[in-house]
Design a protein that fits this description.
Layout (H helix, E strand, L loop, with lengths): L6 H10 L7 H30 L1 H5 L3 E6 L5 H8 L2 E14 L6 E9 L10 E3 L4 H5 L5 E5 L1 H7 L6 E4 L2 E11 L12 E5 L16 E8 L5 H11 L6 E3 L6 H39 L1 H9 L4 H42 L9 H28 L2 H5 L12 H21 L3 H30 L7 H11 L5 H36 L3 E6 L4 H9 L5 E16 L2 E2 L17 E5 L8 E5 L11 E5 H7 L6 E6 L2 E12 L11 E3 L10 E7 L5 H11 L4 E4 H54 L4 H38 L8 H28 L2 H6 L2
Parallel strand pairs: 3-8, 5-7, 14-19, 16-18
Antiparallel strand pairs: 1-9, 1-10, 2-3, 2-6, 2-9, 4-7, 5-8, 6-7, 11-20, 11-21, 12-13, 12-14, 12-17, 12-20, 15-18, 16-19, 17-18
Length: about 850
């Protein structure tokens, strides 16, 4: 015996036949938002999967030990060799130059031993073994990226000077397995570790990182070796990295980028939710007579609600499935270009977690935006439903269903906060989105109220346009809200990107020094200072001693056991630059405590960045311990100072009192500003007299930052474009839903003497006013959001640019007009006779 469907489902299925196409906008809006969230999450998961799969290659082995300034002790090396195959790599920055000294370029120099690489392989052009490429045959060999060849104007077989060493370029370095991401300051140059002493770069205090990669020998395991190292050498200054930390910088970049893209994608889903609500409302409007008949025949609220909720659920499932399919396909489409940019293999696959999260966001959004119109239709009495088109009743759902709406809204907000890597940013986004919806709703209500009170206009087309803004069932609320939210997101993105671009390309270069000079040895400081002091037009010379140290304890608590806010984790990750001074550095602003006496000779004191101290919960009198060259030093916090990191001058998180650090091997760091056009000459002069000193051009570093920003900006713009597309879909849905009513209105007006031109002008004016209203709200709202992002999240000066705002107004009016008229052209073109003859 065949089982029958429940009455509500049977009614819903029967009523759906022949009318499914009316819910296409419902499906499209939901699919677009879900696709954006699923795509962002799937792509981030594919990048993480690539990092995890290639972790051993990216790390260079099973474990890595990193030290600053020095090598490991013989006893430590013996301990490692007993348990693993060891490869040593030294990394530093140096100047590569042609023998004629006419062309120079800062490079990220990597010196490797014969065991390198323990994992993966080096790709060269022409193809050579690493031993052949780096060996000493008529000089030591050099491998370099093509950008260095282009900058120096050299080719394979030419000679290159690095420090005091002479190298022969043997091949182009196309790929190194442990590179991860592209270098920030310069191209990669690869040399043999044995050749490094001949460069003269290995000076006391020089900024050199030593990496010891371990391929653990059976039966040992990486975990066991790491634990044995901690027990045997508890005070060692090295940082141990495991496979799950193979590319920490890249992982942080992916996580942060995913967060921002997901929030923008959620904007698209929010706008799409408005389309869902309008599509359901429009669908129920066409079913008004059916609902009234069902309720007159005894169908209860629950039956009606269940019947149409089943319809909404079916189409929500279709929209979510389409969105998940589109989002899941994104890793396959973007794997190649993204992998080249990030330097890792992106691994496309179906990732259940981001797809499940996107589906959950989609389901909650669909439920939130469909329950209100469904509950309203179920709550209206049968007699009212028959006249609802001409005299809408302000019915409200029951308290139970209002509670259900509130629960769904809270669940959506909770999911947003719980799934975000930074709950504060997610919470701020949620509050901002809710405020934006309220503002646009109020703007639409104000517009309708003003239109209803407008004086009688002389032109019939204008009178009709104004009347359309406030009549029952007008498109004004949905159109202003959906278009306004989409344009607000786009305005925010454009203003944030424009402000950052202005800061990096104009403001920072104007205030920043021209050069950073590093690795200045103590014996060179006087001669170097004299050279720069006599340089024509040079100004703003600043010089400080510097060492690298790793923070190990805060208030005598190991940093591994200290919980710090995500925005300050970078301070504890790796080594920090530290300096010391008898007097406060120029421009220092003490906000708490006081500076030590110039002749201070007591216990070690430290001046700390006030904002970072607050993030760590540190106060005056607390202690900070730092490991410097294998020795742990503990200092008491004497004062907190304000540090402006945006000026790109010499700044440090920690400035110590003189004393214990002064006798340590050290180097100096200097900055200077020179007139435009003098950069090459000064660089050549420094290189001719100080082969070990490296020059970092700030402008080139800023250009690299701008390229990174541009890549992220393009991704954010693409997702913001999805939000705008969702808004346009809602507009199209509003126009489609009103088409039937527009046709009958047009017929009546034509009978009364209106022409097609009159009707077209009325539609043009109506939608232009809607677009203008949306733009009038979106422009200041988007500007305020961009200001909040730049000033509060990024702590940078906000640079307002007029072009994005003008673009907002133009887009708003154009899109509202095009999509509004496009959906109503059929009404304008409709002939009156067929409708007048219709029964």
């Amino acid at each position: 015996m065949r089982r029958r469907l429940p009455v509500s489902l049977a009614l819903g299925w029967r009523d759906l036949k022949g009318g499914a196409r009316r819910l296409r906008i419902f499906v499209a809006c939901l699919a677009l938002g879900v696709a954006a969230i699923a795509g962002v999450g799937s792509l981030a998961a594919a990048v993480r999967a690539g990092i995890a799969a290639d972790a051993r290659t990216l790390l260079g082995g099973d474990l890595e030990l990193r030290l600053a300034h020095r090598e490991i002790a013989p006893e430590q090396r013996s301990f490692l060799v007993e348990r693993a195959q060891v490869s040593e790599v030294a990394q530093l920055r140096a100047m590569a130059r042609r023998p004629d000294n006419e062309a120079r370029r800062l490079v990220e120099l990597k010196a490797v031993d014969a065991a390198y690489p323990l994992a993966g392989s080096v790709h060269l052009a022409p193809s050579l073994s690493l031993g052949e490429a780096l060996g000493k045959v008529d000089g030591w060999g050099l491998l370099a990226e093509r950008s260095l060849l282009d900058r120096l104007g050299i080719g394979v077989g030419d000679e290159v000077l690095i420090g005091e060493g002479r190298y022969v370029l043997r091949a182009v370095l196309e790929r190194e397995p442990d590179r991860g991401v592209q270098a920030f300051f310069g191209p990669r140059a690869l040399v043999a570790l044995e050749s490094l002493p001949g460069t003269g770069l290995l000076q006391p205090g020089s900024l050199i990182y030593r990496h010891y990669r371990l391929a653990v020998l059976p039966p040992e395991t990486p975990e066991a070796v790491a634990e044995a190292l901690e027990r045997r050498f508890p005070d060692a200054a090295w940082r141990v990295r495991r496979l799950d930390e193979a590319a920490p910088g890249l992982q942080r970049f992916v996580t942060r980028t995913e967060l921002y893209l997901t929030l923008v994608a959620l904007s698209a889903l929010l706008v799409g939710g408005l389309g869902v609500a309008h599509a359901i409302s429009a669908w129920l409007e066409t079913r008004t007579q059916t609902i009234a008949i069902l309720k007159s025949l005894g169908a209860g609220r629950g039956t009606v609600l269940s019947a149409y909720a089943a319809q909404a659920g079916l189409f929500a499932a279709i929209g979510i499935a389409i969105g998940l399919g589109l989002g899941a396909a994104l890793p396959w489409l973007a794997a190649g270009p993204l992998g080249e940019r990030l330097g890792v293999e992106v691994r496309p696959a179906l990732y259940p977690a981001p797809l499940g999260l996107a589906a959950l966001f989609g389901a909650l959004t669909a439920a939130l935006f469909t329950l209100w119109p469904l509950a309203r239709a179920a709550a209206i009495p049968p007699a009212t439903l028959f006249r609802d088109l001409v005299a809408p009743m302000a019915a409200r759902p029951t308290g139970r269903r209002l509670a259900a709406l509130a629960a769904i809204g809270l669940a959506l907000a909770g999911l947003l906060v719980a799934s975000a890597s930074d709950w504060k940013i997610a919470l701020g986004f949620g509050a901002g989105a809710a405020a934006a919806v309220l503002v646009f709703r109020l703007a639409a209500a104000l517009m309708a109220a003003l239109a209803s009170r407008a004086p009688r206009l002389p032109k019939p087309a204008w009178r009709l346009a104004v009347a359309n803004l406030h009549r029952p069932g007008a498109a004004t609320p949905s159109a202003v809200l959906s278009l306004g939210l989409g344009i607000t997101v786009m305005t925010t993105v454009l203003l944030v990107e424009g402000s950052l671009k202005t800061e990096i390309e104009r403001t920072l270069p104007a205030a920043a020094p021209t050069f950073y000079f590093i690795d200045i040895q103590p014996a060179q400081r006087e001669e170097f200072r004299a050279l720069l002091a006599g340089w024509p037009g040079a100004s703003g010379y600043d010089e400080v001693p510097m060492l690298r140290g790793r923070i190990t304890r805060l208030k005598d608590v190991p940093v591994e056991r200290v919980a710090v806010p995500a925005e300050f984790e970078w301070v504890l990750q790796g080594d920090r630059g530290i300096t010391w001074a008898a007097d406060p550095p120029a421009g220092t602003r003490i906000v708490e405590g006081r500076w030590w006496e110039a002749n201070h000779s007591g216990p070690l004191l430290v001046s700390l960045d006030a904002e970072i101290a607050a993030g760590f919960g540190l106060r005056i009198g607390d202690t900070v311990s730092v490991n410097v060259l294998g020795r742990e030093l503990t200092a008491e916090i004497a004062n907190l100072r304000e540090v402006d990191w945006n000026q790109l001058g010499i700044n440090f998180v920690m400035v110590f009192s003189p004393g214990a650090l002064q006798s340590a091997p050290q180097m100096a760091l200097a900055t200077i500003r020179v007139p435009p056009g003098e950069e090459d000459a000064l660089e050549r002069a420094v290189g001719a007299r100080f082969a070990n000193i490296s020059a970092i051009r700030v402008a080139e570093a800023l250009q690299t930052m701008a390229r990174i920003l541009s890549g992220v900006g393009q991704a954010v713009q693409a997702v913001a474009g999805v939000t705008l597309a969702a808004g346009l879909l809602v507009l199209a849905g509003v126009a489609a839903a009103l088409r039937r009513r527009r046709i009958y209105e047009a017929v009546v007006l034509k009978v009364l003497g209106a022409t097609r031109a009159d009707l077209f002008r009325a539609l043009l004016a109506e939608h232009a006013m809607i677009g203008l209203a949306a733009a009038a709200v979106a422009a200041p709202l988007g500007t305020a959001a961009a200001y909040a992002v730049i000033r509060m999240a990024m702590e940078l000066p906000f640079r307002f640019t007029l072009l994005p705002v003008l673009l907002t107004v133009i887009l708003s009016i154009s899109f509202a007009t095009i999509f509004g008229i496009g959906g109503s052209l059929r009404a304008v073109a409709a002939k009156a006779a067929p409708y007048l003859r219709a029964p």
